[in-house]
Amino acid sequence: MRIEGIQSVIRRKKKKYTPSTPQHTAENLLARKFHAETPNEKWLTDVTEFKYGSQKAYLSAVLDLHDNTIVSHVLGHSNNNNLVFETVETALQTTPDRKPMLHSDRGFQYTSSKFKELFGAKLTQSMSRVGKCIDNGPMESFWGTLKSERYYLNVYNTYDELKRDIDDYIHFYNYERLQAKLNGLSPMEFRTKAV
After folding, report:
1. Torsion, Cα of 138, 142, 144, 146 (10° steps)
2. What is the mean pLDDT of residues 83-105?
3. Cβ burial, residue 21 (10 Å; 0-12/13-18/19+)
4. How many CB atoms lie within 10 A of CB 61?
5. pLDDT band at residue 133, thresholds of 50, 70 and 90?
6. Which tens digits make up the pLDDT trace of 149-184?
7. DSSP labels for 68-93?
8. Largest CB tally within 10 Å, which of 30, 73, 131, 174?
């Protein structure tokens, strides 16, 4: 190799994630059982990132496993507690008489004492295992669908453009996008028949 001037190319190792000590954790009660018999029985939640212009925005959402409905979503400028708390509070307002299971990753928002204080009596928490994003598979799948069917097809220069398009897509997804898993119905059509 030296005579021929050949040299191997080695990818740089990524920095290892430094684990933080969460204030509260929960058992993985969902255990990849991605089916719910009734609406508002099992919810998934997560936050994803979008770019517009030279800045970033963060979308937090709650997905109902019964019918894949996006129960609530909030777009914000920061990935912080308020973003997640507002999303969960909005979702809970849609079903005041139920205590759903809410499954999330172990992000700082979901493991904070404030989250437990605000929502501990209103829902049952379930969390993915460390480094196992597949434990929240349907939520990750929704992010992929949203990004491939809308976000990657456009260029966004302003926050308002991005927000308008995300709101429009989620309305389309809930009310018009047909899904084979739901017998060819949209999530809201399937939900209405179940209720």
Report:
1. 180
2. 95
3. exposed
4. 24
5. confident
6. 999 999 999 999 999 999 999 999 999 999 999 999
7. --EEEEEEESS-SHHHHHHHHHHHHH
8. 30
Q: Alpha-carbon distance 83 to 144, whole Å?
A: 20
Amino acid letter at 27?
E
Tell me the Ramachandran region of residue 53: left when phi exceeds 0, alpha when psi lies from -120 to 50, beta otherwise. left
Rounded to a whole number, what is the distance in angstroms from the first to the last CA of the chain?
70
- Record the tokens describing residue 115, joined without a space: 């989250």
How confident is the prediction for the chain on average, in pLDDT?
Answer: 92
Q: CA 60, CA 80: separation in Å to the nearest integer?
A: 10
The closest of 43, 26, 45 to 34, measured between CA atoms, is: 43
What is each CA distance from 186 to 43, 56, 118, in whole angstroms? 18, 30, 32
Place of tokens 């912080």: 80
d(CA 8, CA 109): 43
Residue with tokens 């963060």: 58
CB 61 within 8 A of CB 138: no
Residue of 126, 133, 116, 55 whose CA lies nearest to 81: 116
pLDDT band at 15 (very low <50, low <70, confident <90, very high): low
